[in-house]
Amino acid sequence: MVNGVFPNIQGLQVQVLGYDNQLELVNKTGKPVVIRDYNGYPYAELLPNGTVEQNKNSPAVYLNQDRFATTPVPKSVTGKGAPQWQVIDQSGRFVWHDHRMHWMAHTIPSQVKDKHKKTKIFDYTIPVSVGGKPAAINGTLFWAGQPKGFPAAAIVALIVIALLGIALVWFIRRRRTADEREATPRGAAEAW
After folding, report:
1. Is 130 exposed, middle or buried (0-12, 13-18, 19+ CB in 10 A)?
2. E strands of the chain, at which residues?
3. Are 14 and 5 spatial neighbours (Cβ–Cβ below 8 Å)?
4. Over its length of 192 residues, how does the chain's per-residue pLDDT go in tens digits?
5. Domain extents for the chain?
6. pTM score > 0.90 for this model?
7. Burial level of 184, CB count in 10 A (0-12/13-18/19+)?
8. Helix or strand or coil: residue 165?
9. Which 3 state secondary structure label does DSSP give 130?
């Protein structure tokens, strides 16, 4: 969950997509917006004209390709020096996976004592700059909680589908039997 951008910046919209899978940032500020990677190096830039660029010299370009940052970073990508911008879009919208906003282990977080309750896991901050001035996307990761018991609606739906299937089979068999009786000549039945 995104709590907001601080300081509050008019025209900068941020939202979480897929619970904790991606962030979407839309720039309508009229100023350049730079998203910083895990070491504070420029990762992506959204220009006032809608151009979206990604810095191919940021290790985050590779680390963000999968949920657990297992994609190897080429040795030539140093995360230092002048950014190597590459245009990736013209929409003023950037969607990316950011490891600062999700649980990075394959286990359930230790904060979760009851799997069925919504639980705060941690707060996160993603540094950005707007028009050259520092700002931050602040958010909170929650364990959503799992529903208790069996999904009653799903069970009822399966029973209804099964009953409809049985009724359909019964109807088709009955119809075939009636069709076979009509197709059989009267004298042929008596000859048997």
Report:
1. buried
2. 2-6, 12-17, 22-27, 33-36, 42-46, 52-55, 85-89, 93-96, 119-130, 133-143
3. yes
4. 899 999 999 999 999 999 889 999 999 999 999 999 999 999 999 999 999 999 999 999 999 999 999 999 999 999 999 999 999 999 999 999 999 999 999 999 999 999 889 999 999 999 999 999 999 999 999 998 777 766 677 788 889 999 999 999 988 888 887 777 777 666 555 555
5. 2-143, 152-191
6. no
7. exposed
8. helix
9. strand
72-115 pLDDT tens trace? 999 999 999 999 999 999 999 999 999 999 999 999 999 999 98
For residue 68, give the DSSP letter. T
**Tokens 């000549």 map to which residue?**
185
Task: Give the amino acid at 97.
Answer: H
Cβ neighbours for 180, distance < 8 A, ≥ 6 positions apart? none
* Burial annotation 33-55 (CB, 10 A radius, 16+ → b, else e): bbbbbbeebbbbbbbeeebbbbb
